[in-house]
């Protein structure tokens, strides 16, 4: 296969490779870098008589992403160079990338999904993304993570358990929590004061690090509607086994809201934004 044909075939696969890399890296800039590096390696190697070009390119991209994840972990960096984005209303930085483009893509993938994937180790993340999200066989994943197929399967299984989480409350309680918190987020996004007051207990509280406690449904509702960005970037998640909220601009975790629900209404929020405390929380997707 000559280079011109390879380039044409690579362009046909570019969207797929970008989607794979983005889910593995959680950063559009890094995903585009990984796709470019995939092309450089593929063009140097030459496709020869490769029968499954998309699979071959995905394998190359997977190895590149794994190396990038390992390098990021060694340096202790946040994806996309967003160290320090830990406030509810902190600035969104995206290097040379248009933040709006990445926000749309992050929302399509799922903000909570990106947050939870970021909790996985590099090999776990690669194995889970490739197998569970893109149906890559474990025999191929094994070569990428340099393990046996059986070990690659275990990596994906362990990652799946962490992504799915385990509720610590009965199913009926979880459903009531979910209904109340979903109603709160829906009212926040639509700007519906009456709906917010209906779901908040009259003496609801909000506690946040370094701030005075806020009391009263009307005051909480007013402050909520005054900060629409929070609602746009907020998604339901399992927080330490109960229904909570992750606030994640472009999939980068900025804060977590632990929610107390009593008698089908929200009794209060505890807002956590300190990086060390965020790291200790068990976050997962809601079942």
TrEMBL record:
InterPro entries: ECF_Sigma-70_Domain (IPR052704), NTF2-like_dom_sf (IPR032710), RNA_pol_sigma-70_dom (IPR014284), RNA_pol_sigma70_r2 (IPR007627), RNA_pol_sigma70_r4_t2 (IPR013249), RNA_pol_sigma_r2 (IPR013325), RNA_pol_sigma_r3/r4-like (IPR013324), WH-like_DNA-bd_sf (IPR036388). Keywords: Sigma factor, Transcription, Transcription regulation. Residues 89-98 have a biased composition (Basic and acidic residues). Residues 76-99 are annotated as: Disordered. Residues 11-75 form the RNA polymerase sigma-70 region domain. Residues 114-162 form the RNA polymerase sigma factor 70 region 4 type domain. Gene3D superfamilies: 1.10.1740.10, 3.10.450.50, Winged helix-like DNA-binding domain superfamily/Winged helix DNA-binding domain. Coiled coil: none annotated. Interacts transiently with the RNA polymerase catalytic core formed by RpoA, RpoB, RpoC and RpoZ (2 alpha, 1 beta, 1 beta' and 1 omega subunit) to form the RNA polymerase holoenzyme that can initiate transcription. Belongs to the sigma-70 factor family. ECF subfamily. This is Sigma-70 family RNA polymerase sigma factor. It comes from Actinomadura nitritigenes.
């Amino acid at each position: 296969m000559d280079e011109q044909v390879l380039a044409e075939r690579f362009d046909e696969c570019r969207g797929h490779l970008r989607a794979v890399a983005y889910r593995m890296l959680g950063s559009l800039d890094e995903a585009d870098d990984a796709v470019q590096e995939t092309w450089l390696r593929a063009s140097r190697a030459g496709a020869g008589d490769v029968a499954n070009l998309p699979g071959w390119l995905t394998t190359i991209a997977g190895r590149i992403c794994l190396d990038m994840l390992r390098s990021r972990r060694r340096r202790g960096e946040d994806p996309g160079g967003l160290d320090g984005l830990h406030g509810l209303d902190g600035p969104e930085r995206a290097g040379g990338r248009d933040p709006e483009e990445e926000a749309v893509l992050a929302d399509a993938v799922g903000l909570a999904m990106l947050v939870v994937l970021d909790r996985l180790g590099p090999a776990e993340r690669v194995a889970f993304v490739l197998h569970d999200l893109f149906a890559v066989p474990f025999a191929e994943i094994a070569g990428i993570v340099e393990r046996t197929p059986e070990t690659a399967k275990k990596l994906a299984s362990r990652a799946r358990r962490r992504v799915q989480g385990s509720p610590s409350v009965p199913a009926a309680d979880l459903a009531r929590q979910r209904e109340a918190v979903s109603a709160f987020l829906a009212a926040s996004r639509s700007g519906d004061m009456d709906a917010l007051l209906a779901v908040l207990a009259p003496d609801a509280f909000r506690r946040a690090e370094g701030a005075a406690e806020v009391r009263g449904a009307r005051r909480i509702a007013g402050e909520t509607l005054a900060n629409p960005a929070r609602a746009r970037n907020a998604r339901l998640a399992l927080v330490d086994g109960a229904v909570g909220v992750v606030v994640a601009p472009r999939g980068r975790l900025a804060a977590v809201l632990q929610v107390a629900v009593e008698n089908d209404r929200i009794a209060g929020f505890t807002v956590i934004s300190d990086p060390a405390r965020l790291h200790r929380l068990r976050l997962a997707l809601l079942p």
